[in-house]
Amino acid sequence: MQKQRSNERGSSRLKFLLVMIVVVSIGYAGYLFIPVAYQNYLFKDLMQHDVDVAAVSGYPVTWVEEQLTKSLADYDIPKDAKITSVQRENRVEVRVQFTRIIEFPGYPYEYEFDHTVKSTAFLTFK
What we know:
The protein is an alpha+beta fold and 126 residues long. Helix content is 45%, strand content 26%. The longest helix has 47 residues.
């Protein structure tokens, strides 16, 4: 009985090590990527808030750019981010573009952020 299983020794250790390498790699990638994605999610919310405030209060479109520029450091966004704002059809619209490098071991990933928000239609006055 033991002669039949002699070639199976150690196979469970190898499988365990391979599974652990995959799990640790995915966990580390999540550790690097999730905070960046979460900060960008919060920045999108700030963009929508600032655009809505500008539309309701009657601020010029440059006010939105100024507010977002002040907030770049709080959200760990590069200073060379391109912020453009316009007013179309009685609505304020802003677009933010930037690229952030996430350093994975052996591979630098370029996270590209390109998001446009418009003020909510029911908040604008004609």
